[in-house]
Amino acid sequence: MTITLRCGRFEIELAPACGGSVAAFRMDGRDVLRPAPAGSEDPLEMAAFPLIPFPGRIAFGRFGFGGARIELPANFPPEPHAIHGQAWKGRWQVQEASTRHVTLRYEYREAAWPWPYLARQRFEFDDEGLALEISVHNRSDRAMPAGLGWHPYFPKPGARLVGRLGRRWAFDRATLAPTPDHNRESVDWREPQPAEALRLDDVFEAGSAEIDVLTVAHRVTLRAGEPFGFRVIYAPPDRPFFCVEPISQVPNAVNSTLPRALTGLRVLEPGAALSGAVRLAVRPPAPVAA
Can you list the positions of beta strands (E) in 127-257? Predict the structure, then answer.
């Protein structure tokens, strides 16, 4: 079951029971994000979904924290790792709704991830497009490692990307240990790059970088400030989509020996929260010079 919110030129369909996902986002009736197939209940087929309380993979679902050894179930078969937390596969609820905004909430109770938490997503329209506020609140009585992310899918055919990102991170094939890779080039797409020509599944340092997605129908600018200091660019060959994912920490940060300031890993004390904002500004494409 989806919930549809319309405001001016924009329309969004939300699927709370399917991981708090976005099923579709449109401007003037045309898809901005890849729409979910009718009736789908798979978050991986949605237009976007949240990454809470960690983005990316935790190697083999295992890590140590606060003197305890944590073991999470593999949730992305056939891979042996835990990926993207629990919220993307959970049932969210509508907390409040109006003509311009919807707030979804997800309550996780202690299980394999031994910290109960409350996650929220607030979707709101303005004159530019869609604003998302996303948060996780530690409801346990002990410190919790925490991260945030959002996983939107863009339709690939005819799309081009413009933007500049910092250094890439490398990940050990056996352990997924993350390290900044000084030997690989950063992204410098001052000239539009055809999405269909990209072959990427990489993590980049982002700072306050913006990425523009140019299509026949739209020019979409993705903006995300703190704590989203990284971007995943996922452009698989022979698939009709690509992803530009704002994330707050590198994957497998909980197993890294690098400083938290470098990996982006946050630790929330009991009662504390981590939150951030993502914006999709949508406008018609610039006219092509004759």
Answer: 129-138, 144-146, 149-155, 160-165, 168-171, 178-180, 187-194, 200-205, 211-214, 219-224, 230-235, 241-247
| Residue corresponding to tokens 């898809």 | 31
Give mean pLDDT, residues 58-76: 96
Nearest partner of 150 among 287, 22, 23, 8, judged by Cα: 22
Considering Cα of 209, then 31, then 125, then 39, what sign does the dihedral take? negative
What's 85's DSSP letter?
Answer: B
Specify the amino acid at residue 228. Answer: F
pTM check: above 0.85: yes
Question: Which pair of structure tokens corresponds to residue 9?
Answer: 């030129």
Q: Average pLDDT of the chain?
A: 94
146 token code pair: 């925490």
